[in-house]
Amino acid sequence: MSPVFTRRTTLCLLGSTAAVAACEPSRFITYDGPEVTRVEVHKSSRQMFLLNHETVLEGYDIALGFAPQGHKTTEGDGRTPEGRYHIDRRNPNSAFYLSIGISYPNEEDRAQARERGVSPGGDIFIHGTPNPWRNRGDWTAGCIAVSNREMRHIYAAVRDGTVIDIYA
């Protein structure tokens, strides 16, 4: 193989990689809309809403835990919690694209688990998907999943400390 061919091949490969990377949207966008004061999740209809007080700003179709009926009570039960929580952390390096954390378990959840002698679980997030072509349907371990495009918007719009109400 000639050195010229090797250099040309390398340059072509680098150029192709840069072109593909330029086509992929950035994970991080800027949100300049109204403040999101609350997130509302309706498990039965698989819907999530971002609200400014009582005004719905955005709505999303969601996927839930693999056993979505009822309130999360035990680690590994596949349920998505129900109740009032807060957004308490974010992970820009999530295996599920981007994620924002939900403050489950709260003190009441921990007390009920203690009474039963079990772990309540934790690490409940709103997140994207590890694979953009993932089938819809309930597939998480208890988290709330949206598309990666939607997650970019949610990640930018929802601040830590925002209330999240999760209904059956």
Automatic annotation (TrEMBL):
Catalytic residues identified in the record: H127 (proton donor/acceptor), C143 (nucleophile)
PROSITE patterns: LD_TPASE, PROKAR_LIPOPROTEIN
Keyword annotations of the record: Cell shape, Cell wall biogenesis/degradation, Peptidoglycan synthesis, Signal, Transferase
Keyword field contains Cell wall biogenesis/degradation: yes
GO terms, molecular function: carboxypeptidase activity; transferase activity
One annotated GO biological process: peptidoglycan biosynthetic process
Pathway info: Cell wall biogenesis; peptidoglycan biosynthesis
Protein name: L,D-transpeptidase family protein
Species per Swiss-Prot/TrEMBL record: Roseicyclus persicicus
Top-level taxonomy: Bacteria, Pseudomonadati, Pseudomonadota, Alphaproteobacteria, Rhodobacterales
